[in-house]
Amino acid sequence: LALLPPLIMGGGWGRWLYEALVLLVIACPCALVISTPVSIVAALSAAASAGVLVKGGVFLETAARIRVVALDKTGTLTHGHPAVQRIIPLHGSSEDEVLEVAAALEQHSGHPLARAILQAAAQRGRHPPAAESFTLVQGLGAEGRVRGRPCWVGSHRMLHERGLERAAVHRQLEAFEDAGHSVVVVGNETQVCGLIAVADTIRPGAAAVVQELRAAGIGRIALLTGDNRGTAQAVAQAVGIEDVRAELLPADKLRAVEELVRTAGPTAMIGDGINDAPALAAATLGIAMGTAGSEAAIETADIALMADDLSRVPWLMRHARRTLRIIRQNIVFALAVKAVFLILTLLDHGTLWMAIAADMGASLLVIFNALRLLRRGG
After folding, report:
1. Domains of the chain
2. Residue range 34-56, pLDDT digits in tens
3. Of 50, 271, 326, 365, which has the maximum CB count within 10 A?
4. Catalytic-role residue among 72, 272, 308, 359
5. Could you give the C-alpha distances from 82 to 111, 119, 183, 283, 320, in angstroms and in order?
6. Is 302 known to be catalytic?
């Protein structure tokens, strides 16, 4: 523009050089370049101040596309601080003996049920011996030698797999599970020594969170848990979840999440334990409970709720969608301003000062529009 027109059409070099400078300023893509990153930074800052740690802008954009949410039960929908309610000794064992064996095997576990058993043992003044040949049976329980005898502790499923389930034990298990209790079974190589009924409390506002998720456009909500079906159904009914999948091993949770992603669309998995890590990794978006969560879950997840506040999840969905709307607004505005002043310049109505004002003004307006994301309530 500065060289060819004077040579071809004649005229002064100064005029065409001026027009070239105007066009160069108009073509500068400052507002367009900053429209996305400034919005993402503002959105990440707002999320952090709201107690939501998002590990990158891409995960914020992913959150805006989520249409399915899968939740773990223990430590997610519930507080994750269960307490022992009853101990039922069987086959000549005493309550203290059952609790001692369970505590000996659970000393190496970080599961909330293990913590409840250890707390109950401490309250009774029991000091469990060290378990020898300890083995963690992933998703089922643990086994080892206590005072020289092979023992195990685990779920109803572990009892079934060992072939020690009897009618009387089954009836007692069902009674506890129907009451909404998680049941820890304690046994040795030949028989069941006792049952430990443990109960957790649902987080206040969990039902409201489920309603907010639906209001935020989440079409499907599922409960995925390794706990027994009776307890899972009781919690699901209390919070308003219809899709319940219970007695899941970590591999089962992984397959359930993969199936949801494949059949229902972008899926967020919310969990807290080491058993949730594979499912968190497989989900479109993994969300971990930051305080109650295990290191493996927090490391694997894309987002962490630092205050374990479930109400931040529907807020996050709305916040992510608002972020994308503002990014689109910024891009459209930046392109529109450039197009208008480019046309004015080509029609010989644009001046250099107009071009500078348009470029700086567009950049400032894009920044101010993005800063609206810092308002947490939006």
Report:
1. 4-38+319-374 (no CATH), 52-79+202-308 (3.40.50.1000), 83-199 (3.40.1110.10)
2. 889 999 999 999 999 999 999 99
3. 271
4. 72
5. 10, 10, 11, 27, 34
6. no
